[in-house]
Structures
1.
Amino acid sequence: MNRILFLIIICAITFSAQTQQTNLPAFGLNDLEQARQFEDWRSEVDLSNSRGWKWFARHKNFQDLHGGAAVSSLELINYYTELQRVSKEKAVTMPAARSGHDWSPAGPVNRPPGVSNFASHNLGRINCLAFHPADSNIIYVGVAQGGVWKTENHGASWRPLTDDLPIIRISDVSINPANPDEMYICLGDYAYIGVALNTDGRKRNTHYGMGVYRSEDGGENWSPTNLGFNQESLDASLMRRVIFDTIPGRAIAAGVSGIWETLDSGQTWNQIMDSLIWDIESDPNIQGTIYMTTGYVANLDLGSAEIWKSIDYGRTWAKLNSGIPTKDAQRIEVTVAPSNSNYVYAIACDLQRGLQGVYRSTDAGASWTLRASYPNILEWTDGAGTGGQGTYDLCIMVDPNDPDRIYTGGVNIWGSEDGGLSWKGASYWYHRDGWSTHADQHYFKFNPLDQKFYVCNDGGLYRTDSIGLTPWPLSEPWNTQWPTDWENITDGMQITAFYRLDISDANPGNVIAGAQDNGTYFKMAGNWKNVNGGDGMDCMLDPSDPNVIYMSSQYGNLVRSTNGGTFSRSISRNIPSNEEGGWTTPMEMHPVDSTIIYAGYGNLYRSFDRGDFWTPMSAFPNLSGRSYSSPITAFDLSAQNPEKIYLAKRVYFEYNEPSSIWLRENNNWKNITAGLPDSLYPTSIEIHEANDDTAWVSFAGLTSGLKVFETRDGGDSWNNISAGLPNVPVNVIKRQHYSAFNTMYAGTDIGIYYKNDTTTQWELYSDGLPNVIVSDVEIHYNEEKIYASTFGRGIWVADLTDSSAFPPPDTSSTPDTNTAHVNACPVLDFNLYPNPNSGAFRLEAELAAANDLRIEIIDVTGRLVYSEQIPETQKMIKDYSLELESGQYYLRLINGGKSKVRPFSVTKR
């Protein structure tokens, strides 16, 4: 593939009377140069005063983890093949060796309060929604990384519908208005189209799509249509939207590869246009009339920004003379006024992703006028600045009753009462005065059944009876009182994308986790709260004082709180300015003295006073031509001798820098990389708790069979122990301390695996866990539980497979591997049917023995809604008829302290 100039401009905005812009230079002529210039740019600017760069950095991080410039097309194909294979394997009944260890959700599922009144956090990004055509209580949403969710009670509760699909990234949900049981969804994350369309070194395979899936029963079950793609298609695998025809069986689907037509409900598809499609919308009043926009991708000088119209449900198309410059605009979104179909509006972003213009037609697209090119309603504050995020967040909607009143979404929400000639503000992402919505708007829609406006953005789902507009004083958005009464209806969806997790064995129930674009969440005394902003990254809980917590945001911005998050202060400002932390900068705590903490930048730093002052513990060489060393991705301290440290540094293709593993012993650092793959990204290191010559390291990337390695001689040699792991990134490795069976867990891009002395290879340990990226794993020894953070479905918890470590055994003796500690659960078989049900179901269970037998039912929020003690028996059949609201539930059968969980859905329809 030819490498083509990749241009991107990133704007920096400071909160003052002046609006400043910082430009990233034009990227070079190949992907490695592009990545290198981004790294150079960010090392020279103050990111805390910059806007518009995080979306790029997030996906550069994904790229790094999945192989960087070294990944091949074949490896990309294999990646999704593996996801499909594992999802099918999980659907098969798990062997008895793994039964009794099912996963259940652990939150958060409600927007927690923030320690700052200004915080705009919520639960996670929602890309789209769809309304039932006849029942206002039924709404579906498509979550960026968390699947399709459904409510049957107008948003009071939600349940997931797609956890078993190979990927659960959603760009569109479409309902047949003539038959609401027939639905299509587009699998993939369309928001990143244009970031690096088909550019060799930027293969964001975690965001590629799998085409269109179909349901015939209102979303309860899904199957792939024949509009699917392999990963060699790259961005062409992304589909934007599906529109139903009135003719049964016919629909059109639009995406990067153009427009496709099916006449037989998705069994076959015919391509009728091959242009890249940004948007496609139906006229709400005239059947068969559809408007569509094509796009220009500036970073590849590819395509053309245009508006097209069809009057025959997309069979034929006519290009409209919109006046939009085809090479000076990138993305166009279009909308039709429900009160007058002659009024059609379009909004376009320019080459810097700021506002190019708002256009209007009053004759159904025959002619157009430019209504506004200023203020820049796509930038981050009052519209006086340049740039924006228009290729990532852009939407437009006409008021249902007034064709001159329009609303637009970029970072914030703006509106016009005169057809786009003048503009007022409707929301601001920083809640300085009054409640507003989260930043980064992706989808607007009005529901004629309940007469409410709905907004999807990076925080979740909001609605209101009316969108109020107010003049926006230039340069002072924080002094504006926003008039709209927004209702957040994201609660009930566990959809947060977490990067890292920590728990406190000394303080059961305390959990902290860092989330993409929604800060850091801390659960204490059963309650969640938001305690830090930005992209929440690595975090720690002090076992000696539950009020001492550590948090971080991207590139090593570390903060500490001594009062449970109410007040925090930076503890990374005295790290030398030439140090560069990774996107997720790792932190660790001394295994005995919790006042001693460590942080990994290019070098390892230690603080003896909880981060007030830092001293370097290493002096690694700098990258070629740079003033800083390659960032540390993971490290671990020996429990026997904390001065002994294993450490991993990332691969950096931009600088021809291989990954490396180091051992610190006797105050000296030794490179112990020999025998390990140095072209892959090391993600995690774990040291044996009783023998620090034994350690493990895990790797991301898409190279088959190179996932986890073990050393038993302090890194002098390494053994590959990857057998059984799928060819997807392994994001974390965790050993169960003092396990007599050497039990270990691996968190991957499609769930959790485990191995021990009783298995011949890694085996799936994901019963009940959605098919989602597992980003981190922690073990709670007092609870005998394992916790996992996921990138899109929140936090999950399960029983440990191995109870041999409670209490810690006598390690001087040889364990009896014939004992029943591993996978021991007295529940042999357990079933609940029908599923879904109305609250009436039959429970059948076969038990090896009965000991303190009981059942518990929890809802999707983790709230206990039913419990019952069961008489001792070895086989039970019991019918239940419970008054449960529509939603997702989990029935936990507990026997002898061990539990087995089955999810089930309650629907009243």
2.
Amino acid sequence: MSQRRWEMGRPGHAVVALAGLLAWVMLPVVYGADAAPQAEPPRPEAKDKDKDDKKDEKKKEDEFPKFEDVTKDHKEVLGPQGVSGFFPLLYNKKNDQLLAVIPKSMLDKSFLLASSIAGGPMFAGWMWDDCVVQWREMDKKLVLIEPDLRYKEGGKSPVADVIQRTYTDRIRLAAPIVTKRGGDPVIDLGEVFKKDFAGLTQLPLFRGSMDSTLSRWAEYKVFPMNVEVAVDAAIMQGDQGGKRARVHYSIIQLPTDNGYQPRLADNRIGYFLTAVKDWTTPHDAETIFKRYIHRWDLRKAESDKAVSDTDPEHQIIFYIEKTVPVKYRRYVREGILEWNRAFEKAGFRNAIRVEQQTDSVHAEKDPEDVRYSFFRWIVSGRPFAMGPSRANPLTGQILDADIIFDDSMARAWDMQYARFSHVAYAALEDPQLHEFFTRYPEWNFIPLQERLLPESTRYAGVRPELDPSVAARLATKHGYCTVATGLAHEMAFNMSYLKAAGKEDSSDEYVGQLIKEVAAHEVGHTLGLRHNFKASSWKPLNEILSTTDHNVPNCGSVMDYNPGMFNLEQDRQGVFVMQTVGPYDEWAIAYGYATHQGTEHSDEAALLKSITSRVAEGGLAYGTDEDTMFFSPDPHSNRYDNGSDVFEYARHRMEMVRRLQKTIAEWGVEDGGGYDQLRRTFNMLLFEYGRAAGFVARFIGGQYVHRDQKGDPNARPPIEIVPAAKQREALSYLVDTVFSDRDFQFDPDLINKLAAGRWGHWESDAFDSQLDYPIHDRIAATQWGALFQIMNPITLNRIYDAQLKVPADQDSLTIPEVVGRVGSAVWSEVETGTAGFKPADRRAFISSVRRSLQRRHLETLINLVLAKPGTLVSADVQAVVALKMKELSNRIGSCLTGAAGTQLDDFSRAHLDESKSRIDRALEAKYQL
């Protein structure tokens, strides 16, 4: 963002044409009357009217208490160089009253009002909401109006009046006018922001009511183009007392007529977008929506050149805040500047500039001033990073962006894995999966101890997880990013591998590379780019692991969630993490920012068509957040996988886990250290094993989803069913790994060293309510994740539908095959019978790990068969499940009877007898429904 452009009052990165000539009318307010262009003197015939208007204004002003009396104990808040600000503010320290003078020239003009949660449990630093609003004077009040900008005005169209009548403005609140200053209304901002304007009390954590008498102003700053205020809100919760949360509000001027040209979005490339419904669109148009991408107003210094230096007035400038630790600053700088590679290929040299703030250089610049974009370092205690931006809600032009990076990201942060399989963990941030478990709790896996003692097993000191309903709301915000949540696990896993390999001296370099990659990722968001979780399907794994050049991408995009990559041959280590932008990033920047001037293309439409037509090229695959939920069909769209062959990546990751588990007692805890660290590390390894298995499980019932359009070169169909052979390979892989008990044979001496954390204080990072280690529950959670991935109703319905999507002459995986194959694998002991089995002390025909898996499988079958027909799965699917259950009951019966049954140990016999009984009762209940 150009500092010079904002400081001179020229329209910069701004937001909305509805503001009219906002920059013009605000010059006298912001810079003083002398700074405004001289208006023509009034014509003689207008003098009498001017006198009448002044008399009316004076009369209206006399209706209110005198300004001097109301503000006698107030002091005006001044900004840089003594500027009074966008809206002048006056503060009374005695009664904590903050008044705002609303220039009458600003009435009925639009401005951006944005809120964020600046302090409080869990959410410190989060962008929350933003809207375009207008002040209107009505009956001694200022009414805050929010126009419905989702619908374009009709202009001279015949439907203009209908549009205006149908989509009315929203009244947000009304504030009494306490006085006037020269005709300008003055209001008490406490009437606006000491109430719950941001809707914070909608959050489960802050449920209650905001008490304006106990809330206090925490901050009030004014700048030429914006006003920043923050309230330490008192949220009362009845007899339980209350909580405080700091809510920050930004009031931002929306310059207009600055020459910015919006650019239409294309779903082949992932940008945040602004969508407007235009009812004046011709009836034969494909859509009535106008969708504009979010981007900066970059301009070339030499517009007729294919490649030019960026016009300094439109250059994007990031200031690295002085709070960023010195040892990490170079990684942050490099991560930001990596994007210049993509911009130069799009025709802009030096599109981004980085400046370092110190105690003496750029010290006067405030991160909250919208003229400046900052990379900020905070300490909320929760590992996260975010690259939010504010954009014009009509054109998509980015106005301001600041990156937030939490200090915890740079630490080997341990997560609480005690109750998580990778599926249960995913439910915290996946609205669909969360809704499924809410509606059908019987499908969820809950550890035995938590079922028995749900309250006492809560983890003392550990902050509650982000409520999924809140996560769903935050996910709609531009720049919302959960990369840090996964990276906390990645860092724990990868640092463990370095420690086990005796390469702890490489940990600083690994952390540095991680910071650079995250910085580049978050900058990508501030440039308008969405996540691309399909980018990792570009290169084969061996090529990725052998990459040593930091300038060579090992993934299609830095906008993916990229895992650390470690070569099992430790003397051949390549780069740890993606260190530069990938081919997708360059392609996306070209679409968003390239201009046709200086190229062979006649206009913008021709240029964009030439860019989007490359969609089928290698390295340009795109799949974003909604493509990467648990129930999404494309197995190539994942967080934290890498490589064109996901099976190969899963094998690589599982082998890392096996190697670490073999030696964990040697490196997992230091001499003199507590064994609770060993427990957390062990849990982390089980989690990683289960997540790798989950990547493979997604191939069963999988469908490759492409965004190619008709006429694109080498266009692929929108949907391709994963070949049956590939799905069978995935199932065989799971049978040999996670469904087996082979990888869960742990040394008893190790298990008895998995001590509980005993530090039960506030926000403790080392507390476990269960002193003994529940090994069966941990293994069961790992196995259940893969089983649920295959046997959940949505996957089964997708497999069922696929029989009509695969030509009759081609091979297809069917419901009978999947249900039968999974059942045979899970119950293989029953399939083979007891021939050759010889009971011995402590040796069971069916191991405890396998019995646990069989119970999970049986619960799944019962859930399916007892549901009302057609409510969970197709009736055909339900009938097949019932048939396979009946066949299983018969096989169990054969195993229990005769000579074979006499060879069974008590555990196995009791388990099989109980299982058969449950199957028979479930089938009987089904037929009685």
